[in-house]
Write a structure and sequence with these properties.
Elements (H helix, E strand, L loop, with lengths): L2 H78 L8 H22 L3 H32 L5 H4 L1 H9 L3 H31 L8
């Protein structure tokens, strides 16, 4: 092989090595860029999760304040003061206990105790709805049996339903909050598993 051919071959090798180095450098830059994008995405997801959870927690307070605190308080006072003669006292106790348990669940939701908050809110809603259903059914019976009632008296069942039944929305929002937490936890578990699967395996000889 002549000197000219050797120089040409050496030049080609250097050119190929340079191109390979450029490719490696480009791949490294792409990896760094992807990792930065992934980190930004993870940060945005982490920010979005607390925002969604906080929104659900705030929304839970609205039907509770309306049904549990406002209307529940009205009926507890009305029954306790004897203004609703055909409604037994235990109905007021059901509404009061249910409201208290739901409130405890909402507090736990803000403390991020998602499983326990759902259990308490669901249980409190069941107790509350037993009392609320009794009141609404009693009003419906009076409307069905009575004559000469005013329009306002006839509208009482629907009015009281509108006041008491939205408490069920608290349970629905509580369930969504629990579901969001479970999805987030499952995603974190899968991510950890992928990291373990992709981790380098040490040789037994080493």
């Amino acid at each position: 092989m002549s000197k000219k051919d050797r120089l040409k071959k050496q030049s080609q090798k250097q050119l190929e090595a340079k191109k390979a180095a450029e490719r490696d450098e480009k791949q490294q830059r792409e990896k760094v860029s992807e990792s930065k994008s992934a980190r930004r995405l993870r940060k945005s997801v982490k920010k979005a999760d607390p925002a969604a959870s906080l929104l659900l927690k705030i929304l839970m307070c609205i039907p509770f304040l309306w049904s549990g605190l406002y209307y529940g308080g009205i009926f507890i006072l009305g029954i306790s003061m004897g203004q609703m003669d055909d409604v037994p006292g235990y109905v007021a106790a059901l509404i009061g206990i249910g409201s208290a348990v739901i409130l405890a669940g909402i507090v736990l939701a803000f403390l991020s105790k998602y499983v326990l908050q759902f259990v308490l809110i669901a249980a409190g809603t069941i107790v509350f709805m037993k009392g609320a259903s009794f009141i609404v059914n009693k009003a419906s019976e009076r409307v069905g049996e009575g004559y000469g009632l005013t329009q306002e008296q006839k509208d009482l069942p629907s009015k009281w339903s509108f006041g008491l039944y939205p408490i069920m929305a608290v349970t629905a929002l509580s369930a969504l909050l629990l579901l969001l937490w479970l999805i987030k936890r499952l995603a974190a578990k899968r991510r950890r598993q992928r990291e373990l699967d992709n981790a380098p395996v040490k040789s037994i000889v080493d």
